[in-house]
């Protein structure tokens, strides 16, 4: 049985005081993490405060990106070793916004995944197709390519513990969420790709999230689907009440 994982992705939102107010409102109200993993993906600036506020609670903290080297002359980058040392548990990689605006490739995603795992954190590896690819009926082959590239050289154990997020680009921030059956089908493509690259046991363990206009009102539809183990949520994770409502709907 795969444990559900609901992760907020705040993207580039909030100030330090807003992040701290959110943590105060949420940290003692998240459901127990033997039922659901509750994660907030925060800008790097607030991670120190959020990790310290969430210590001893069931709220876990994620970064939204990191570099694939632990240290060195890489001005402006964030070290995975430093994130791990801080107490960060997850790192989102390969988000479509990073691919589109910052040129992140499958090869980068793969190097980052290895660095994150080497530092005992869990990657949340994002994949997803554009509207053009979707309308051309090429979603499955596109997703297979991203998964193959992102997972290159990872071991069975490493992939078993991974989180993969399927986020159709046309559903992100548009209010136009994918139909739950489509989300299930493409999360199934992700799982099938893992089965092809590894085996059915690994595929049955890897957790797969759907992301794209998930809200408290529609999350249960996705979570009811066989291949959907959680959600990666942007807009609806920004307010404490809404984030808690997402968690309540799945616990
Ligand atoms: O990109 C997303 C999460 O990573 C989805 O964002 P929205 O939930 O705002 O559509």
Automatic annotation (TrEMBL):
<comment type="pathway">
    <text>Carbohydrate biosynthesis; gluconeogenesis.</text>
</comment>
<dbReference type="GO" id="GO:0046166">
    <property type="term" value="P:glyceraldehyde-3-phosphate biosynthetic process"/>
</dbReference>
<feature type="active site" description="Electrophile">
    <location>
        <position position="95"/>
    </location>
</feature>
<keyword id="KW-0963">Cytoplasm</keyword>
<dbReference type="GO" id="GO:0006094">
    <property type="term" value="P:gluconeogenesis"/>
</dbReference>
<feature type="binding site">
    <location>
        <begin position="9"/>
        <end position="11"/>
    </location>
    <ligand>
        <name>substrate</name>
    </ligand>
</feature>
<protein>
    <recommendedName>
        <fullName>Triosephosphate isomerase</fullName>
        <ecNumber>5.3.1.1</ecNumber>
    </recommendedName>
</protein>
<comment type="function">
    <text>Involved in the gluconeogenesis. Catalyzes stereospecifically the conversion of dihydroxyacetone phosphate (DHAP) to D-glyceraldehyde-3-phosphate (G3P).</text>
</comment>
<dbReference type="InterPro" id="IPR035990">
    <property type="entry name" value="TIM_sf"/>
</dbReference>
<comment type="pathway">
    <text>Carbohydrate degradation; glycolysis; D-glyceraldehyde 3-phosphate from glycerone phosphate: step 1/1.</text>
</comment>
<dbReference type="GO" id="GO:0005829">
    <property type="term" value="C:cytosol"/>
</dbReference>
<feature type="binding site">
    <location>
        <position position="173"/>
    </location>
    <ligand>
        <name>substrate</name>
    </ligand>
</feature>
<dbReference type="InterPro" id="IPR000652">
    <property type="entry name" value="Triosephosphate_isomerase"/>
</dbReference>
<dbReference type="Pfam" id="PF00121">
    <property type="entry name" value="TIM"/>
</dbReference>
<dbReference type="InterPro" id="IPR013785">
    <property type="entry name" value="Aldolase_TIM"/>
</dbReference>
<keyword id="KW-0324">Glycolysis</keyword>
<dbReference type="GO" id="GO:0019563">
    <property type="term" value="P:glycerol catabolic process"/>
</dbReference>
<feature type="active site" description="Proton acceptor">
    <location>
        <position position="167"/>
    </location>
</feature>
<dbReference type="GO" id="GO:0006096">
    <property type="term" value="P:glycolytic process"/>
</dbReference>
<dbReference type="InterPro" id="IPR022896">
    <property type="entry name" value="TrioseP_Isoase_bac/euk"/>
</dbReference>
<comment type="similarity">
    <text>Belongs to the triosephosphate isomerase family.</text>
</comment>
<feature type="binding site">
    <location>
        <begin position="234"/>
        <end position="235"/>
    </location>
    <ligand>
        <name>substrate</name>
    </ligand>
</feature>
<dbReference type="GO" id="GO:0004807">
    <property type="term" value="F:triose-phosphate isomerase activity"/>
</dbReference>
<keyword id="KW-0413">Isomerase</keyword>
<comment type="subunit">
    <text>Homodimer.</text>
</comment>
<dbReference type="InterPro" id="IPR020861">
    <property type="entry name" value="Triosephosphate_isomerase_AS"/>
</dbReference>
<feature type="binding site">
    <location>
        <position position="213"/>
    </location>
    <ligand>
        <name>substrate</name>
    </ligand>
</feature>
<keyword id="KW-0312">Gluconeogenesis</keyword>
